[in-house]
Amino acid sequence: MRIAVCPGSFDPVTNGHLDVFVRAAALADEVVVAVLVNQTKQGLFSVEERIDLLREVVADYPTIRVDSFHGLLVDYCKANDISTIVKGLRAVSDFDYELQMAQMNYRLAEVETVFITTNPLYSFLSSSLVKEVAKFGGDVSGLVPDAVLKRLQQRLSATMDPQG
Ligand code: PNS
Question: What is the residue-averaged pLDDT of the chain?
Answer without folding.
Answer: 95
